[in-house]
Amino acid sequence: MSKNQEKIYGYARVSTREQNEDRQIIALKEMGVPEKNIYLDKLSGKNFERPQYKRLLKKLNSESVLYIKSIDRLGRSYRDLSEQWRIITKEKGADIVVIDMPILDTRREKNLLGTFISDLILALLSYMAETEYRTIHQRQAEGIAAAKARGVKLGRPPRPLPENFHAVYQKWKAGEIITEEAAKQVNMPASTFRYRAGIYKKAT
After folding, report:
1. Catalytic (active site) residue 15
2. What architecture does CATH give domain 3-135?
3. Residue in 15, 70, 82, 191 annotated catalytic
4. How do the domains of the chain map onto residue ranges?
5. What's the predicted TM-score (pTM) here?
6. What is each CA distance from 93 to 33, 42, 56, 57, 168, in whole angstroms?
């Protein structure tokens, strides 16, 4: 591996362990980033408390180039994203290349105008990323509220009641057995029995 390759790094992030990072990894490799220099976090982009990102930061210096596929892979919060951009480019002195947005390439036009344009576009894109993220979550919340208003049951359906539940419930209701004994007979925690008994009472 050449000295130049050792100075090239890539960062990828997916929000959950179920999401696939392949597209990002392929794009980074196509830009010439060695696999050993690619850092991947499987965490939300809400903050920068990410172990691999922290490891990456320690590697960066004025001779480094950091590739990311898109600006939202670095982060979603406009304030935090701008701060990390400043740390990487100003404190570390490294360059950043956003693959999906070629104009965000700090290697280009190292003059005052070039820096101004890059920072301006970053501010716009990071604001859009944060706004889109908030909009998605707002729509999800509105969708859940609307579904509940229509009487749609959300979450997992409750397990069927045991065959002996009615008989045990009647004994418990009549005061013949205490809650703990009733729960034991239907193989439930006491709190679950009380909850299911409340629902059963309303349904009968």
Report:
1. yes
2. 3-Layer(aba) Sandwich (3.40)
3. 15
4. 3-135, 165-203
5. 0.57
6. 19, 26, 14, 11, 72
